[in-house]
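Q: How would the structure tokens look for this protein?
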Amino acid sequence: MKKKILITAAIFGALAVITGAFGAHGLSAKLKPQDMQVWNTAVQYQFYHVFALIGLSALSRYQTRLINDCYYLFSFGIILFSGSLYLLATRELTELSWIKAIGPVTPLGGVLFIGGWITMAIAATKNK
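A: Here is the predicted structure in token form.
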């Protein structure tokens, strides 16, 4: 499990660096300032939860269901929260106006993040 968590963290971490650099160097002149801010929020939260996954890997030696649940909550949270923000930030640039309909996905990703943190806390208290 530890290896799976670290590999996932590494992939999401690399993607966060790529999306951050792409935003700074490729999109900053093309997006409105508020859309650039949305993009940067997506990058930030992706990084925060990469670090959460790395921390989770330290608890993974216990191999509990809580650790597994936390892994999925953080991973799907990144996909839904950050992924939807990346799409929302670039909707005018991509001319895909229907993307604004995915706006409700972002808070769902946030709920998954909150669930992941709570699950991590419970897992940490149950393991000695």
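Residues 9 and 53 are 6 Å apart (CA to CA).

The chain has a mean pLDDT of 92.

Upvote if useful.
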